[in-house]
Amino acid sequence: MVDITETVEILPKEASSKVKKSKGNFNIGIPKEIDDQERRVLLTPEAVRLLTNNGLRVVVESEAGKQSKFTDQEYSDAGAKVVYSSKEAFETEVILKVEPPTIEEIQHMLPGSCLISALQIGRQNADYIHALNAKRITAVSFENLEDKVGGMPVVRAMSEIAGSTVMLIASEYLSSVNEGKGLIMGGITGVPPTQVVIIGAGTVAEYAARTALGLGANIKVFDNHIYKLRRVKQLLGQQVFTSTIDNITLAQALREADVVIGALRAEKGRNKIVVTEEMVAAMMPGSVVIDVSIDQGGCIETAQMTSHSKPTYLKHDIIHYCVPNIASRVSRTASVALSNIFTPILLQMSDLKGAEEMIFNYKWFMKGVYTYRGSLTNAHLARKFLMTHKELQLLLAARY
Predict the structure, then answer these.
(1) Residue 23 pLDDT > 60, yes or no?
(2) Would you give the DSSP letter of residue 68?
(3) Can you give the pLDDT at residue 150?
(4) Are 147 and 172 in contact (CB under 8 A)?
(5) C-alpha distances out from residue 332 to 44, 70, 157, 338, 365, Å
(6) Is 362 exposed, middle or buried, given 0-12, 13-18 or 19+ CB atoms closer than 10 A?
(7) What whole-number distance in Å separates Cα of residue 172 and Cα of residue 349?
(8) Which of 84, 106, 109, 282 is deepest in the core (most CB within 10 A)?
(9) Predicted confidence (pLDDT) per residue in 215-268, tens digit
């Protein structure tokens, strides 16, 4: 982490007198991600321009957008204050971050400020929650944030990206160059198509299936929710093999599979293992297993979290790819998608004069809150970390 006592600021080209003032003016901080696996940023320069034109002050740490090919000068020209100290980016009323902050980064935050970031429950512990509560931080997680119609916009967007990308990753590791089976994803005239098994029937599965079918592969989709299987068939617009998850049918499909995609979303805060180690051991050597749900615990017993710098490992002669933030492989696309989601939310927050009023007025925003003014408000986290929690609606009722 860079620590320079004297802050250097890149001045925007446009005069600040052109910036309109709004009734809900507050500061937004965008620190640089310190995890070398994370390449996304939550606001693009164009989004910053819109926010600053509406009276919001945006503080961007130098090189926060570098991995997504956004320069400091672009942010400066958009009206942001570019600083060279992460501490200054954290000392704002609202902090936007992809990775959850470290304990050290939490110490830089202002008491009572609002954090909007991923939670990544599989990586967290009770100390993280205690650090947020000690600062009375209102923390909002991407994973639980809903929109006005009950959907999960961040999960949906990142799932679309992961689903579209995952088959390209599988194709890469099927090749002989990467010690795979030496197969092309799909097939050609006279050669049988690649066999792909997709476990789960949500957004990741839908986009993985689209890509696999487009490449010419045969797919089999498994899920325990009939309505999800029916939905996938309708969205794909063609007849594909679908089945509920039973050990016999799944085990047979895995023995014949060239690629297995684990895409089961956790329910009630916990994921369920549906592919046992015995099933993996019975697969053909050189096959590829990709567990997209590894950040929530995974649904394949042999899956262990990996990173972009070392994405794969062999177990039972099966190539395992278990990187939790697949969307970071295409960081610019992912950053634009995230920016499109959070820019309108920040403008609404500005109209209401802060995060507190957003929670009080919008239940869809309230769903993402897991700590509020010194209290843990998420029951799943409380059970996981053996902590007490308070119902957010009761805390709001007492306050108002």
Answers:
(1) no
(2) G
(3) 83
(4) no
(5) 9, 8, 13, 10, 25
(6) middle
(7) 43
(8) 109
(9) 999 999 999 999 999 999 999 999 999 999 999 999 999 999 999 999 998 776
Q: Which two tokens stand for residue 215?
A: 């490449």
Q: Which two tokens stand for residue 119?
A: 């939670």
Instruction: Please choose, from the candidates 160, 172, 173, 243, the residue with its C-alpha nearest in 3D space to the C-alpha of residue 202.
Output: 160
Beta bridge partners of 259: 196, 288
Cα-Cα-Cα-Cα torsion 102, 271, 126, 377, nearest 10 degrees, comes to: 100
Whole-number Å distance between alpha carbons of 78 and 72:
10
Contact 108, 75 (CB under 8 A): no
DSSP class of residue 267? Answer: B
Query: Confidence class of residue 89 from pLDDT cuts 50, 70 and 90?
Result: very high
CA atoms within 13 A on the CB side of 239: 0
Closest CA to 43 of 95, 102, 86: 95
Determine the residue type at 166. Answer: V
- Which two three-digit tokens encode residue 172? 């890469």
| Distance separating alpha carbons of residues 296 and 120, to the nearest angstrom | 7
Give the pair of three-digit tokens for residue 147: 């929109």
H or E element, residue 105: helix 103-108
